[in-house]
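Example record

One chain of 192 residues, shown exactly as stored in the release files.
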Amino acid sequence: MTDNESLSSWDRIIIGIDPGTNVMGYGILGVKSKKPSMIAMGVIQLSKFESHYLRLRRIFERVTGLVDQYLPDEMAIEAPFFGKNVQSMLKLGRAQGVAMAAALSRDVPITEYEPRKIKMAITGNGAASKEQVQEMLRRILNIDASQLLPQLDATDALGAALCHFYESSRPQVEKGCRSWKEFIARNPGRVK
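Predicted structure tokens for this chain:
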């Protein structure tokens, strides 16, 4: 289901990315009538490339290809968590930046989410395991167990996309007015 005609039936398409330097996960979420559904998910295997720079090039090529294939309206990407290994953090940050650059090269807006926020949005627990996130996504999005991949990076990426759907679908609450005079000043066209 990746031809443009079937993609145009969605009100909105969100690509989620779980950055990595060995395996990068992606998830494509379609929204129709305010109901999210999985379109696709998968992983980009990077461990076969010995050079970190070749891995970065592959990330750029594959993410650009996914954007061209699925035509997402937005990207949700997991923010790197801060670990103790500075070199690992640097490499992960580069992988995330290259994925973001691929989306930006196609004018796809990006929102970044911390892993805890994604886990909280999907499971209600910011310390949930990757397996718990996968199981909740399977239930929420009615994903057949046979479609799940052994690499949890794919469902992590789908979780980022669903988190973004939840976050961006919430009504934005405007800071309240302290008086009628302030309300009228802020909303001149609504008061006659």
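Notes: Helices lie at 4-7, 52-70, 86-104, 115-123, 130-140, 153-169, 180-186.
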